[in-house]
């Protein structure tokens, strides 16, 4: 049964619980068949109201900051895998208290913190991030292998033997990719770091594995993972973010005004691409809207540009054709707006943050949060 938009406030990020469960079931099947550990990357999906369900299926979570690590510890009730380009000395003790694994981005960082981590009251498994200098990511903004990338250590900076105490390698070079990109990437990882893989207990292959996208070849991924586990006798960890929230929900919005901008009909919405859907401008990509298609040229269909509610000139997305004309007060629902949205929203221009809710499996809507002036004021 489709969800009933009239029961949901505007604007609101709304996750469909049954769609999330479907993703989690699939990820768990891959996890079980391959023997890999799949953990959720909070940078892409940190809607913690769902953590009890996520935890039923996945092996934990990965954090890129103290805040994310603490959220995992408090809300998922497990210890976090952590990686960040650098750690703050004044936060490190607290960070350790929430962590099971810590990956360092440079040998400097490892040398700075190794005594602390090795002297900690319980074992924390430490790794270093490597840069295999191969990525099939078209947008430089999301490519960790651009020339001069600060993310990970290139092979020339590592000797024949890993530093004492390092028991894992971490490589993140994928972005919404399939298993064939992973296969081509593994050629570079193994060519450059293969000898070191024999020295570690685990290899974390980062995120970017879009296993929940239609057409992804899970059997192929499973065979790649099995081969790695057998060849090097290591644990394989995957930490996708997007794949968890992929196509699990929407951003609802309302038409506030319709204007004629020099011949272009613009629907001004109560949401902002810049503040609420920043990836649409960063990547960029054109989000799908329920009941609309790309502008149909030379056709009679009513066509509109979607205008964001900030005064940023570029805060718009166009153009879309609808079956019938839009009116002020109509709902406009953006599809696939759960991953990398809530985690990135801002109150730029003082715009309010969308509410957050869940369309439950029993077909009831649960409003989790609404935000007001205090949220805006707290941030500045
Ligand atoms: C180190 C690391 N791990 C995991 C992820 C999650 O990637 P994705 O959400 O594309 O699966 C990212 C994303 O940038 C990352 O930088």
From TrEMBL:
Catalytic function, reaction form: carboxyspermidine + H(+) = spermidine + CO2; carboxynorspermidine + H(+) = norspermidine + CO2
Keyword Iron in record: no
Domain Orn/DAP/Arg decarboxylase 2 C-terminal: 143-337
GO molecular function, one term: lyase activity
First-level EC class: lyase
One Pfam family in the UniProt entry: Orn_DAP_Arg_deC
EC nos: 4.1.1.96
Classification via InterPro entries: Ala_racemase/Decarboxylase_C, De-COase2_C, Nsp_de-COase, PLP-binding_barrel
Cofactor(s) for this UniProt protein: pyridoxal 5'-phosphate
Keywords: Decarboxylase, Lyase, Pyridoxal phosphate, Spermidine biosynthesis
Family as reported in the entry's similarity comment: Belongs to the Orn/Lys/Arg decarboxylase class-II family. NspC subfamily.
NCBIfam families: nspC
PANTHER family (UniProt xref): CARBOXYNORSPERMIDINE_CARBOXYSPERMIDINE DECARBOXYLASE (PTHR43727:SF1), DIAMINOPIMELATE DECARBOXYLASE (PTHR43727)
UniProt protein name: Carboxynorspermidine/carboxyspermidine decarboxylase
Origin organism lineage: Bacteria, Pseudomonadati, Bacteroidota, Cytophagia, Cytophagales
């Amino acid at each position: 049964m489709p969800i009933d938009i009239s029961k949901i406030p505007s604007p609101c990020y709304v996750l469909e619980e049954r769609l999330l469960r479907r993703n989690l079931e699939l990820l768990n099947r891959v996890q079980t068949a391959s023997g890999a550990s799949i953990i959720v990357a909070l940078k892409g999906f940190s809607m913690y109201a769902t953590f009890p369900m996520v935890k039923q299926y996945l092996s934990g979570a990965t954090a890129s900051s103290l805040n994310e690590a603490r959220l995992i510890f408090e809300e998922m009730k497990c210890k976090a895998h952590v990686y960040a380009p650098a750690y703050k000395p004044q936060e490190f003790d607290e960070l350790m208290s929430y962590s099971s694994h810590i990956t360092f981005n440079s040998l400097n960082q490892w040398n700075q913190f190794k005594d602390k981590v090795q002297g900690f009251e319980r074992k924390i498994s430490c790794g270093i991030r490597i840069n295999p200098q191969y990525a099939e990511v078209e947008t430089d903004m999301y490519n960790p292998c651009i020339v001069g990338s600060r993310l990970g250590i290139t092979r020339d900076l590592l000797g024949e033997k890993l530093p004492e105490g390092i028991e894992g390698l971490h490589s993140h070079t994928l972005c919404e990719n399939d298993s064939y990109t992973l296969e081509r990437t593994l050629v570079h990882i193994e060519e450059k770091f293969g000898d070191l893989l024999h020295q570690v207990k685990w290899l974390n292959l980062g995120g970017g594995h879009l296993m929940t996208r239609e057409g992804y070849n899970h059997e192929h991924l499973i065979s790649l993972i099995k081969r790695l586990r057998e060849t090097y006798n290591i644990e394989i960890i995957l930490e996708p973010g997007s794949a968890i929230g992929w196509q699990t929900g929407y951003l609802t919005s309302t038409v506030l005004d319709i204007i004629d901008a020099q011949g272009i009909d613009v629907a001004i919405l109560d949401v902002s691409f810049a503040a609420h859907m920043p990836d649409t401008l960063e990547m960029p990509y054109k989000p799908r809207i329920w009941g609309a298609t790309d502008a149909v040229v030379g056709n009679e269909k009513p066509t509109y540009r979607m205008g964001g509610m900030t005064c940023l000139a570029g805060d718009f997305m166009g153009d879309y054709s609808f079956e019938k004309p839009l009116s002020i007060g109509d709902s406009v629902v953006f599809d696939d707006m759960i991953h990398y949205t809530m985690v990135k929203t801002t109150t730029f221009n003082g715009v309010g943050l969308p509410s957050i809710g869940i369309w439950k499996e029993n077909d009831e809507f649960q409003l989790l949060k609404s935000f007001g002036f205090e949220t805006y004021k707290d941030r500045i």
